[in-house]
Amino acid sequence: MIRLSALIGQPVVSLRDAEQVGHVDAVGLRAGRIVSIGAGRLVVPAEAIRTFEGDAVTFDPFPALEDHTSRPVADVIGRRVLDRHGDELGPLVDLDIDGDGTIVLVELPDRTMPGARLHVVGTYAAVVDSEPAELPPPAPPPSAPAPS
Amino acid sequence: MSTRYVPPLVLGHDVVGLPVVDASSGNDVAEVRDVVFDPTRGGLVGFTLTKRSFWRGRMKQLLPIEGVLSVGTHAVMVEDGSALADPADAPAEVRRADPSADVLGNLVVTESGRQLGELVDVVIVGGSAPRVVGYRLSGGLVGDGLVPLHAHSGLSSSALVVPDDLEPRVRSDLTGLAAELADLERDRS
User: Fold this and answer.
1) ipTM value of the model?
2) For A79-133, how does the pLDDT look when each residue is reduced to its tens digit (9 = 90+)?
3) Number of domains into which chain A is organized
4) What are the tens digits of pLDDT across the range B72-122?
5) Range of the domain at B172
């Protein structure tokens, strides 16, 4: 697990020639996942990245990106968060991210929500689904103490 | 724990200036310039738009109400950019928004002829089925206030005629109006 705040600024290293091509300065987020990272003018798709949990982001060679919806966005932390009703929930504080790029938790100033609710981050706002994508299963009732 | 969503009550002039946000990309694609209200149908039919660029100019494209995902307190959400329609493709009632049919400035009178004031704004319930649910009055017998849209109100391009029993239902704030709307709903059912 890594925080987005820790991922931003990490060196980005190509595994083809061991060249450091820059630092993570932007992230593409869609449907509860990291779909790309930006390092200067380079956009690296998430599929090319070995893991997000290291101290540096390493990536394998990848074909040129065609999908413009995967373009990363800078300054994700602090971006306004809107739900799909059009109500603002506050600025994005941080994200918890799994090694494969899955967003585990979205942190807002007054609450957290499951990462699956993060729909997309754009140039204006991060949009989250209004209702929980999945309610957690109810906690089992506490077991009765064994008779002594 | 999930909570039930209650659509907000907002004044028309508070919707003006809200960004129109594409929920599929998180980008702002326009800004609300004006609310298009069809007094003959008594409904909200769409929005005219302003560009979001530094040089904010009027957009030719319109946002018909059918393209709105939700009207919230901070943004008007659309599913994607295709919600914005070129004038040729927009429904006639949005395309032909007639400035002479502007209801703002209308006289508000009761059926027995008491002049309650002038209509200065509309009250909209937001959410995924936005609609006009009331009016804001000013400068008349009841002072500044909010009056619920009543099934038996008559609205033209020059006057709003309301039933006599609506006068005591004029409220000073949106919370009071929400309570009146709930009462009217109970009376109807």
Assistant:
1) 0.82
2) 999 999 999 999 999 999 999 999 999 999 999 999 999 999 999 999 999 865 4
3) 2
4) 999 999 999 889 988 888 777 777 665 555 677 788 888 888 888 888 898
5) 107-188
CATH code: domain of residue B83: 2.30.30.240
% of residues, chain B, pLDDT over 90: 29
* Distance, CA of A124 to CA of A81 (rounded, Å): 9
User: Within an 8 Å CB–CB cutoff, is residue B71 touching chain A?
Assistant: yes
Are A122 and B26 in contact (CB < 8 Å)?
yes
Phi, psi of B80 (to 5 degrees): -160, 180
Q: Is residue B2 part of a domain?
A: no
Residue B4 lies in a domain: no
* Distance from C-alpha of A48 to C-alpha of A132, rounded to nearest angstrom: 30
Nearest-Cα residue of chain A relative to residue B52: A124
In a domain, A133, yes or no: no
Closest-CA residue of chain B to A88: B74
- In the block, residue with structure tokens 């033209």: B156
Residue A11 token pair: 């060196």
Q: Which residues of B touch A132 (CB under 8 A)?
A: 2
Residues of B in contact with A88 (CB under 8 A): 72-75
Cβ contact B21–A86 (<8 Å): yes
